[in-house]
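in:
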């Protein structure tokens, strides 16, 4: 337990971990408390590089943690691979349940000058002419919601990074390559605009907090 907290803090700050070992005893802490430094205790991170986990489907969170551990998801500069590998197998289910059942975050307002039309069109309708499916067809209205992460009310920078990572195939844990084929059709400006639009939309509360 102590090792886990120190690792998390050492990754996030430059404080000497040795000094902390004397100061903090993590025994008796819940396994999700060590995630809070980056993701927030309520799963609503403040910093754009850390995804908001609150209200994500439990099964999606379990899958990501297992993928990080097994190095099937490798677009995290090893930060999450290290964190996930410190969880005992039984703790994966516990942290996934904790973050999944937190109240969904509020949407993130776009900057006033942002033109939302292009992002809205891609999100709601896609572009049949180039066989680009609507994001909402899976991420909002997907038949098996537990499979599809919520991308609404997510930090736009995080969404855009994931899309670039899928496009560059540095994130490759999407089943059947579905997101790699979607992202391959998106130009840079479309990635930016769909990310801002998705962030501005309400997140469904699928599990009771
Ligand atoms: C030092 C900061 C840090 C700590 C501590 C941390 N994470 Fe993360 N986590 C990240 C970053 C950065 C990413 C995004 C990686 C990327 O860009 O793909 C991430 C991504 C994730 C994702 C993927 C989310 C998604 O939408 O796909 C999950 C799930 C996750 N973390 C869970 C956890 C859990 C559970 C813990 C505690 C055991 C934890 N994290 C601790 C930094 C951290
Ligand atoms: C056919 C279904 C489908 C469509 C259409 C689709 N996605 Fe996805 N998307 C998925 C699945 C499945 C995953 C989860 C991959 C995994 O398990 O790691 C995902 C993952 C993502 C992620 C990573 C989320 C996270 O928390 O890390 C982002 C961002 C994303 N999609 C954005 C989009 C955008 C934007 C569009 C529209 C341009 C879109 N998706 C269209 C199925 C789809």
């Amino acid at each position: 337990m102590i090792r886990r907290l120190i690792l998390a803090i050492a990754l996030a700050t430059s404080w000497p971990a040795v000094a902390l070992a004397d100061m903090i005893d993590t025994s008796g802490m819940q396994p999700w408390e060590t995630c809070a430094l980056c993701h927030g205790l309520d799963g609503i991170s403040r910093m754009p590089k850390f995804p908001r986990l609150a209200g994500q489907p439990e099964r999606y969170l379990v899958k990501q943690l297992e993928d990080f551990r097994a190095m099937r998801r490798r677009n995290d500069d090893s930060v999450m691979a290290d964190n996930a590998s410190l969880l005992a197998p039984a703790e994966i289910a516990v942290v996934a349940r904790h973050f999944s059942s937190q109240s969904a975050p509020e949407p993130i307002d776009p900057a006033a000058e942002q033109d939302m039309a292009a992002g809205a069109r891609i999100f709601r309708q896609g572009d049949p002419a180039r066989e680009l499916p609507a994001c909402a067809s899976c991420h909002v209205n997907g038949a098996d919601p537990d499979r599809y992460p919520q991308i609404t009310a997510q930090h736009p920078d995080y969404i855009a990074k994931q899309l670039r990572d899928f496009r560059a195939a540095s994130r490759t844990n999407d089943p059947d390559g579905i997101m790699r084929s979607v992202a391959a059709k998106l130009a840079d400006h479309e990635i930016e605009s769909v990310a801002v639009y998705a962030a501005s939309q309400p997140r469904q509360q699928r599990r009771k907090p």
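note: The radius of gyration is 18 Å.
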